[in-house]
Amino acid sequence: MLSKAQFLKHLSLLVLTIQTTTLVMVLRYSRISSGDNSGHYVSSTAILLSEIIKLMVCLLILLYQTNGSLTSLTQLLRKEVMAKPGETAKLLIPALLYTIQNNLLFLALTNLDAATYQVTYQLKILTTALFSVLMLHKRLALNQWLSLVLLMIGVTLVQWPQSETQSQPKDISSDELETAISVVIDEPLGNRLIGLLAVLASCFSSGFSGVYFEKLVKYTSQSLWIRNTQLALFSVITATIAMCVQDFDLIYINGFFQGYTTLTWIVVLLQAFGGLVVALVMKYADNILKGFATSISIVLSTVCSYYLMTDFYPTTSFLSGASIVIAANILYAF
Ligand code: C5P
For the chain, what percent of residues have pLDDT higher than 90? Predict the structure, then answer.
């Protein structure tokens, strides 16, 4: 019989796998079905909207926890957020890093082709493990290190560029979630070195921020939803600044919702939901397991797209990569 903690751990990982698979499918579908000009919405507005939705959901959950009383909610926020500026300020670090990470990934995608970007970004599996060891003093057995290296190789192979005739449209992985919401990948490639450095920095930011948040929700007294509210509060501010710095003119001329379609909204909602599930996974499972759940969903979404959209033909590198991902999962568990 599973304990409540074990149950929540498995449930959060399962929901993350389903959420990531669904989001990848919707993103892919939106790219296949959109015409030349649709979907050209401003990505920074979509990122901001998903942060606002996350903040609202966090507040609603806290309201539910305080039995629907607005007065109790206000008291709780005063006591846990305003009266503890030191604790609240701790969330400024991941909020800033996630915002920088999103922007770095955008920079990476404008300077690198999507395949190189995706493959290089898999390094975050190792940076996450490294930070888990350094910051949480996690001890990994030899088979677990080996499985992490295998996982990285497996996901890399799964996303390895297919031959020209098979590569339409390009694969979009969960790792592009924040940025690929609307990034137009066919921009002229700029400086590859800048792109590579941006992805590498994102790998470190992703690993560090994830483990930092995990440490806060596992080893400090404030609840997950208070921590999420603090993170969302700062994220709304940093996402607004990032939006103004990058796209103020564009938004001023064509409006905040330019290029929005129903699919855009679905992606924004899924993205917000995904962030909340990621937080649950960090609390009840851990960041390393999050990497495994994401890898499985990358394989699943590719297989689904083969059956549902017939836009993908399994290649040898995909099949061997998928087998390695599955083997890595089994190896890590034993
Ligand atoms: O690529 P990576 O796994 O680092 O992405 C994590 C995502 O989860 C980011 O988009 C971040 O904004 C989101 N997140 C969140 N709430 C948390 C932790 C992460 O929305 N508590």
Answer: 54
pLDDT in tens, 120-173: 888 889 999 999 999 999 999 999 999 999 998 998 888 777 654 444 444 444
Q: Which of 299, 317, 290 is nearest to 124 (CA)?
A: 290
Residue of 319, 268, 312 lying closest to 28 (CA atoms)? 312
Ligand 1 centroid distance, CA of 213 (Å):
10
User: Best of 44, 90, 96, 98 to mutate for ligand 1, by most ligand atoms within 8 A of CB?
Assistant: 98
How does residue 113 score in pLDDT terms, banded at 50, 70 and 90? confident
| Structure confidence at residue 162 (pLDDT) | 63
The residue whose C-alpha atom lies closest to atom 11 belonging to ligand 1 is: 275
How many residues belong to the chain? 334
Cα 275 to ligand 1 centroid, rounded to whole Å:
5
- Quote the pLDDT of residue 35: 52
Q: Measured between alpha carbons, how far is 160 from 317 in angstroms, rounded to an integer?
A: 7
Distance 33 CA to ligand 1 centre (A): 27
Predicted local confidence at residue 334, as pLDDT: 76
How far apart are the C-alpha atoms of 288 and 329, rounded to whole Å? 11
Q: Which atom of ligand 1 is nearest to the CA of 206?
A: 4
Instruction: Measure the CA–CA gap between 133 and 121, rounded to whole angstroms.
Output: 20
Alpha carbon of 75 to ligand 1 centroid (Å): 28
Name the residue of 278, 288, 290 to mutate for ligand 1: max ligand atoms within 8 A of Cβ.
Answer: 278
